[in-house]
Design goal:
The chain has 438 residues and is of the alpha/beta class. It is built from 14 helices and 16 strands. It has an 8-stranded mixed beta sheet, sandwiched between helices. A 6-stranded antiparallel beta sheet has the order 12-13-11-14-16-15. The longest helix is centred in the N-terminal third of the chain and has 20 residues. Bound molecules: aspartic acid.
């Protein structure tokens, strides 16, 4: 039987009203059989997520304070949902067990995980689906990393025993049975793990936006939704800060070549964004998206006759490595080499780096320039299209923007330009309007 795996984020399950929308979506398609749930998120801008309330509760217990005032607010959130849905169902026993555990100093991860655990129990009761506890099917290794193969073996067997089920997101168990969570936003990862274990035809990730946007809406006015994006393009854009999904969520489904569909719980009629292993159609705008980040520095190293000095680059990178700094780009000229790094990584050690670099490379001149923004123009269709780079540079030239650095990966999936931070917004807008016509 065909199967789809779904994940609903915190805002999609923040209130009874949202639960009703979720149930309508699930019931609209018989193949929507496995549902991963987040903890209740914010109902409005000033609201607090249940996960954050649980972390507060844990802190209070650690300080040996009475947790009742904290926990009763959490109980209230769930009880409000249960009663507004008219469910003949109570979590009172669970609340008692959890309160006891928290006040007896059970771990922080266990405490935080109860947000999804309780919400999934309600959703399972409301949908009439089975409840599968993630602690029995999602595993971490002794060193705390996710154990993908053991998980996939066990979870796929568990799913076979349940035709329809709700699985809490965000956590699994350690080899000794204690609960461990993924990093924040980790229910996206659980959804992907479940999709792989179920061999789903698609992983539908339901959230509160209608897909991934071509540019940051805080910088570019009303950017279009990306209809189709490949996993590799997504990696490039999310590395530059354009996120719609937890970074690690793509790995399980990518391995199984299952597409991800980002959908909006509040606008289910919209198709959202499809994230696919390979796209057969070129992109109508040539570029798929544009994203960027501020806060970079360039370390410039000049040395005459650098071009004929074998091993020069190695010496430069060794100094960077000695200081445990990751480098982003390495543009070079005949007698110059530059290393682009995040300013926050070098701020406290910049003098040490420059001094060691002088000693090791015998350079003529070294300086560090701050205030650089990096902007990535990403698109699988740029490979087939002559002149894309030309269009990027012309658009920036026409907008009066000085390009400080250019890098194009050999895959031709992205062109990266470095500009001054004050030109960041102008750069994104100039590129977006060059490629996207209304
Ligand atoms: N509830 C967790 C968080 O707020 C996990 C999730 O929603 O994905 O980070």
């Amino acid at each position: 039987m065909a199967v789809k795996a779904l994940k609903f984020g915190g805002s999609s399950l923040a209130s009874a009203e949202q639960f009703k929308k979720v149930a309508e979506i699930v019931k609209a398609d018989d193949t929507r059989r496995y549902v991963v749930a987040s903890a209740p998120g914010k109902r409005s801008a000033g609201d607090i997520k249940v996960t954050d309330m649980l972390y507060e509760c844990f802190k209070a217990a650690r300080k040996k304070q009475d947790i009742e005032p904290y926990f009763s607010k959490i109980e209230q959130r769930y009880n409000d949902i249960i009663s507004a849905l008219g469910l003949n169902f109570s979590l009172d026993e669970e609340f008692e067990k959890i309160k006891f555990a928290i006040s007896h100093h059970v771990g922080e991860d266990y405490t935080a995980s109860r947000g999804e655990y309780l919400n999934s129990m309600i959703l399972a009761a409301y949908l009439g689906y089975d409840f599968i506890d993630a602690e029995n099917g999602i595993f971490f290794k002794e060193n705390g990393t996710f154990d993908s193969e053991h998980t996939n073996d066990v979870l796929s067997e568990i799913l076979k025993e349940h035709e329809r089920a709700v699985i809490p997101g965000f956590y699994g168990s350690m080899p000794n049975g204690t609960i461990k969570t993924f990093s924040r936003g980790g229910s996206d990862i659980t959804g992907s793990i479940v999709a792989r274990a179920a061999d789903a035809e698609v992983y539908e990730n339901w959230t509160d936006v209608s897909g991934m946007l071509m540019a940051d809406p805080r910088v570019v006015n009303n950017p279009k939704v990306i209809n189709v994006i490949t996993y590799s393009e997504l990696r490039e854009l999310s590395y530059m800060g354009a996120t719609v999904l937890h970074d690690e969520a793509i790995f399980p489904v990518r391995e199984a070549r299952i597409p991800i569909n980002i959908r909006n719980t509040n606008a289910p009629e919209e198709h959202g964004t499809m994230i696919v292993p390979f796209a057969d159609k070129p992109n109508e705008n040539i570029i798929t998206g544009v994203a960027g980040k501020v806060g970079f520095s360039i370390i410039n190293i000049d040395k005459s006759m650098m071009n004929s000095e074998v091993g020069f680059g190695k010496k430069v990178l060794k100094v960077i490595e000695n200081h445990d700094v990751c480098f982003e780009h390495l543009p070079s000229g005949i007698d110059t080499m530059s290393v682009v790094v995040s300013t926050s990584e070098i701020d406290a050690i910049r003098e040490d780096i420059v001094n060691e670099m002088f000693r090791k490379t015998k350079a003529d001149f070294i300086n560090i320039e701050d205030g650089l923004a990096l902007v990535a123009v990403v698109g699988r269709s740029m490979v087939q299209q002559v002149g894309t780079a030309g269009r990027v540079f012309t658009a920036l030239g026409n907008a009066g923007i000085n390009i400080k650095m250019i890098d194009q990966g050999s895959s031709e999936l992205s062109i990266i330009v470095g500009v001054k931070e004050e030109d960041y917004a102008k750069t994104l807008n100039a590129i977006y309007t060059e490629f996207v016509k209304d």
